[in-house]
């Protein structure tokens, strides 16, 4: 009789405690950020992708992620880890010339290791390490470059021949080592490589996407085997999408411009043009009305929504091709059936975004986000202070289970404690009420457990008393 009466508050207290714990935002979080280069947002629906859908069902999915202009690999990967637009982080293209440094940067020649190009920003792995944590990067673009005199705690020097399995093995090793990382970064070159080669509309892209889905399946399996799956936040994203090109849609600069009047710093679909001394007007006029599918901007006229103006590495003239159009110097140059780099407002340029783990809601779909918002989200999860950035934590905090206002009514204790806090104050105020919640819950559970167990031992179950005697025997003999 008495034990039943005790059971009710016990269960209530336990429930309060567990919900309070699951809502606690500042638990030490582990994060693995994965980028499948060039994975367009709608590839998820091209062929069955059971592993991606498994993550979506157990986590969150954002349908439209607006990445940054230009929609190229290096600019966007640096945005993911800094939260800055290209003009602010300084990696404005895969191929650049900095007139102040008088230096070039080129992905084509892997001439990307000059620290000067990277130091207008501080990537998250450095901030994470300065806060006393450890980071590990498996081929993440730029993570093997010395930036502000440091590298990730662990990293693999870039080598595209290293298999996905070997990269995953390193990530697992770092997460499970004696001094484990709390932030892992994993990069894979496809489906970008094959997307360029085949064109995204090719039926042969089906098997390429299936292969990526299998790779994700492999990663999930390894994480489960390493007992990381339940306590790690896995974020799967990419840098940009891909659109179909065609030899019918080529813009040849040689048809409009004298080769001797300019230097072509970056080519397609955003041509970065540096006119020779005294040739600016001539080059601009020749190009401005050259082709209906080419929009030409003087640097100071580049649309504000691109946030692509205030950096010396952005050239005096840029010429942007319409979707699916290709800029070449002349037709004897290399041409690819798929490309990206176009206006970031185009859906076909958009990447995927999925996440699952203890910090994230389950089976939740969000319509849209900006890729700059990932950085403050990561900093929140890692419990580190953000550097100045262009994102907004508030715009993505609904992805998280702990700071979701709609979940709070489910728990009595937190409703009571947070009742007077306005939604916009959650960010600053969250820690204090949760601590009180946890403390109260713990005390209640502890008190009731002691009473309950004492009660059981004394009167209800004699067998337990026998067991106690047995347990204590070896101790007496010792
Ligand atoms: C978050 O970081 C602060 C110091 O910046 C530290 O006092 C606090 O304990 C950390 N929280 C967790 C859950 O690690
Ligand atoms: C820029 O560097 C090149 C060599 O890469 C050199 O020839 C040129 O003189 C330099 N220009 C200036 C202004 O220093
Ligand atoms: C790149 O990785 C491949 C496969 O692991 C290896 O055979 C090759 O030696 C590596 N190249 C360099 C430069 O380390
Ligand atoms: C290319 O230009 C033509 C003529 O202005 C236009 O009708 C067409 O829509 C453009 N193509 C794209 C993909 O914008
Ligand atoms: C086409 O452009 C390339 C690279 O700029 C150049 O080497 C080649 O001579 C050009 N071909 C013709 C036919 O002009
Ligand atoms: C996930 O959510 C959708 C609608 O948002 C719902 O139809 C579906 O049943 C949910 N699935 C699970 C496994 O909860
Ligand atoms: C993206 O950022 C812009 C401002 O930079 C903002 O107006 C817009 O609402 C943001 N989009 C989302 C989905 O949060
Ligand atoms: C982006 O953030 C940087 C760093 O805070 C700032 O200097 C820049 O003005 C911001 N850009 C925009 C468009 O707000
Ligand atoms: Zn890319």
TrEMBL record:
Coiled coil segments of this chain: none
Membrane topology (UniProt): Single-pass membrane protein
Names of the cofactor(s): Zn(2+)
Keyword Transmembrane carried by entry: yes
GO cellular component: membrane
Subcellular location: Membrane
Annotated signal peptide: 1-22
Membrane spanning stretches: 431-453
One GO MF term: NAD+ diphosphatase activity
Pfam families: Phosphodiest (PF01663)
Cited Gene3D superfamilies: 3.30.1360.180, Alkaline Phosphatase, subunit A
CDD domains, per the entry: Enpp
Similarity comment: family membership: Belongs to the nucleotide pyrophosphatase/phosphodiesterase family.
Protein name per Swiss-Prot or TrEMBL: Ectonucleotide pyrophosphatase/phosphodiesterase family member 5
Lineage: Eukaryota, Metazoa, Chordata, Craniata, Vertebrata
Gene: ENPP5
